[in-house]
Design a protein that fits this description.
heterodimer, A: 376 residues, globular, B: alpha/beta, two-stranded parallel ribbon, 21% helix
């Protein structure tokens, strides 16, 4: 185990420095994440993040599962945005075998993927409030998230870990009452979100705790491979849905919200604005959604030709990439996931050095990591 | 999409590339010393193969040259092909909106490759991860301590030789 002597000392270290072990079981680390902080009074002089507590070898496990079985493993990477994870993996395999899925399935994937983005961002808003000490927003945020999850349950039978996107389309069509449910849900959801937004976004205490904290420059964020809302908070309008539109995203009218300062408040507010855009995408998709079949493959065994593919998509946390190699058999030869949280988290050491301990918690919360995909 | 044309099922390289991507490959081979490279593609992504000793200088040029402008390292993957280990780098340019893959083959008896963590900071953790899973040494890396495995873990769980089903940890 790491002892005090093993921690490299910064030049400014004095004999009064104290070693503070934060995590792996700590409410503000959002999972089993541990960091060793060396603190001088209230100031963090050195930080050493430790990950790997949730390493289950998911990438290696895919090598002994057939292609359609891997979908369940993808669910368990970023467990707050299951649909988006299934989606990018299915798209990678579909590209490998050269299958175009029916339009209706594409629209359903967009609707569920965007609702999942809202659910994930709502959880972020709630827990980010908790990190700062605002206890009420989490109740409001979870109320909205609960509604979305009930809808997911009516679609896939599960609140999380859906296994609903299959290679070649979907497991089955939407339930009959889906259109009623979702047209009832959207206005309620919009009200929920507006209420949460009103409660937290411009709250004076909240702003003073987050504005100007954890500032990262555009260049540094790009160098660290940041993507998603964290990068867009630095003023870079990079969104895979816009730069390389996949699925049917080129048919919708939506904005890519960006802010300029790159601090914690900006990272929060980009997500709030994204929720409204996602709601608008869901509404447009519902209007345009055609009838028809939802699966072209049935339950056939997938056996792609010898090839490799890199597929990317916009997850709630950033750009997820799947590098998939097939050797001609019915199991992947190698599957590598490029997890967005992994890159975002790798900048933490630089971000929290020379800040206050209380701010370190805020900065970590603003990155919105999911350890399931960091450790895989 | 076109069906694969070869008997072993592999798709001939370079056929799926758009004109923009072919131009990128041409530019790289003209200006970065084409004799080192083999061209190819990962589906629609242009790809070059580099010898380990050339990797650092090629990456440096790819990042600083205005025509390539690869400011972002998206992904670093290790792949165990049993005879050799391959490291795959996926680069992205925000300004030019193009992607490039670099493949480096490492023989099992010399698993050493220069680090690119001084070019892209994103490589720092990726290389530690690849070191954990595949036992590749990234020479010049500032800190090669285990990242996702615990201290003292024996073996390299990313490799094909690592037992998957009959492995007991405790």
């Amino acid at each position: 185990m790491v002892s005090y002597d093993d921690v490299p000392r910064s030049d400014s270290s004095s004999d009064f420095d104290m070693l503070l072990n934060m995590g792996p079981q700590h409410p503000s680390t959002h999972g089993v994440f541990r960091m060793l902080l060396k603190i001088d009074g209230e100031v963090v002089t050195h930080a050493e993040p430790h990950i790997g507590y949730l390493h289950r070898g998911s990438e290696r496990l895919t090598e002994v599962e057939q292609y359609h079985q891997v979908v369940t493993l993808m669910d368990r990477l970023d467990y707050l945005s299951n649909f988006n994870n299934e989606w990018v993996y299915c798209r990678a395999v579909e590209k490998l075998i050269g299958v175009n899925i029916p339009e209706r399935a594409e629209y359903i994937r967009v609707i569920l993927g965007e609702l999942n983005r809202i659910a994930s961002h709502l959880l972020f808003i709630g827990t980010f409030g908790l990190d700062i000490g605002a206890m009420t927003p989490v109740m409001f945020a979870f109320r909205g998230r609960e509604r979305i999850q009930s809808l997911f349950e009516s679609v896939s039978g599960a609140r999380m870990m859906h296994n609903y996107f299959h290679i070649g389309g979907l497991k089955e069509d939407l339930p009959e009452n889906f259109s009623d449910n979702i047209s009832r849900l959207i206005p309620i959801l919009r009200e929920d979100i507006e209420e949460t937004d009103r409660l937290l976004s411009f709250n004076e205490l909240f702003v003073s705790r987050t504005k100007g904290v954890g500032v990262i420059s555009k260049e540094l964020a790009i160098d660290y491979g940041w993507t998603g809302p964290c990068l867009r908070a630095c003023g870079v309008g990079y969104d895979v849905r816009r730069t390389e539109p996949y699925s049917v995203y080129d048919r919708f009218d939506f904005k890519i919200p960006t802010t300029l300062d790159g601090d914690c408040w900006d990272r929060y507010f980009v997500r709030v604005m994204e929720i409204y855009e996602s709601l608008s995408i869901v509404e447009q998709a519902l209007e345009q959604m055609p009838d028809g079949s939802v699966n072209v493959m049935g339950r056939r065994l997938v056996r792609p030709a010898k090839n490799d593919v890199y597929m990317k998509a916009e997850n709630p946390r950033g750009e997820i990439g799947i590098y998939l190699i097939s050797d001609g058999s019915d199991k992947p030869y190698r599957l590598k996931v490029r997890p967005p949280s992994f890159c975002n988290l790798s900048a933490l050491k630089e971000l929290i050095t020379d800040t206050y301990v209380a701010d370190a918690v805020v900065i970590l919360g603003s990155l919105d990591i999911v350890l399931g995909e960091v450790d895989r | 999409m076109e069906k694969p044309k070869r008997k072993d099922g592999s798709i001939p390289v370079g056929e799926n590339l758009s004109i923009k991507n072919q131009e990128l490959l041409n530019y790289i081979s003209r200006h970065f010393g084409g004799k080192y490279f083999r061209h190819g593609s990962i589906m629609d992504i242009p790809q070059i193969s580099v010898e380990p000793q050339d990797l650092w200088s090629v990456c440096e040029k790819l990042k600083t040259s205005k025509h390539t402008d690869f400011k972002m390292l998206l992904c670093l993957a290790g792949v165990d092909y049993v005879e050799y280990i391959q490291i795959v780098y996926i680069l992205y340019s925000l300004n030019k909106a193009h992607t490039l893959a670099i493949k480096v083959d490492l023989p099992y008896d010399k698993l050493e490759i220069p680090t690119v963590s001084d070019i892209w900071r994103a490589a720092n953790w990726y290389e530690r991860e690849a070191h954990d899973l595949f036992g590749v040494d990234f020479s010049g890396h500032p800190d090669m301590s285990p990242l996702i495995l615990y201290e003292g873990f024996e073996g390299y769980p990313g490799r094909k030789e690592f037992p998957l089903h009959d492995y007991d940890e405790y």
